Amino acid sequence: MEKTEHYIPALGYHWLTPLYDPLMNRFMHEEMLHSRLVLQADILPGMRVLDLGCGTGSLTTLIKQSHLKSQVYGLDADGQVLEIARTKTNHSGVDVTLEQGLAYQLPYSDGWFDRVLSSLVFHHLTSEQKQRAFSEIYRVLRPGGRFYLLDFGNPHNTYTRLISQIIRRTERAEDNIRGLLPGMMRNAGFINTSELEWFATISGSLSLYRAEKLGQ
User: How many distinct structural domains can be found in the chain?
Assistant: First the structure.
């Protein structure tokens, strides 16, 4: 694995990690967003599902609770946040596999997953890392598999356009805000890329994207 300075912790600093869940639930309506993401993903029994950048395991837990017959994996680069995720998933009584790794260097075989989901991770990656991550996601998806991404996107109203000027300076979100992520997915080989929904939050406009790997 590459050195940990190549990724940014969920709130920018490790000492803020314990505050992640309460802040996300209060200001970003995380539970609602995750519910929409899981609903759109159309997960079927027996599917292998990866929560990429699983953080504290909230989305990972929800995926498994909603789809008990699926095989759910969570991957994150941050060992500290994975410990929180393990505590959360154990407390919830769900059987998931949590592993440490980088979004742009996935430790999985080609075609291993039916679905890959990711929530609020890609704005932490550089442009090069985003493109590499999209290529890695394409590699680990089976033919016909789908990728669902929830992250900052192209602003859709006056408020989100204003707040995006701050986000683009404090995060690696320039590609997101310029609406470049669907094109980057297509560059990795994905087809049928589209923005399914968008959400106005206190931090800006979030977009829910879907992309598909060409089937055999």
Answer: 1
Q: Is residue 47 part of a domain?
A: yes
> In terms of Cα–Cα distance, which of 201, 172, 209 is closest to 25?
201
Domain span including residue 154: 35-212
User: Between the CA of residue 51 and those of 97, 137, 159, what are the distances in Å?
Assistant: 10, 11, 30
**Tens digit of each residue's pLDDT (9 = 90 or more) over 121-165:** 999 999 999 999 999 999 999 999 999 999 999 887 776 777 777
Who contacts 212 (Cβ-Cβ below 8 Å, separation ≥6)? 144, 145, 146, 147, 190, 191, 192, 193
Q: Is residue 17 situated within a structural domain?
A: no
Is 169 among the domain residues?
A: yes
Which residues are CB-contacts of 196 (< 8 A; sequence separation ≥ 6)? 40, 208, 209, 210
Residue 187 resides in a domain: yes
We report the CATH number of the domain holding residue 53 as 3.40.50.150
Angstrom distances, CA of residue 93 to CA of 22, 38, 64, 68, 159 = 21, 19, 10, 11, 40
Helix 30-41 to helix 20-27 angle, to the nearest 10 degrees? 80
What does the alpha-carbon distance between residue 24 and residue 13 come to, in Å, rounded to a whole number?
15
Q: What is the pTM of this model?
A: 0.86
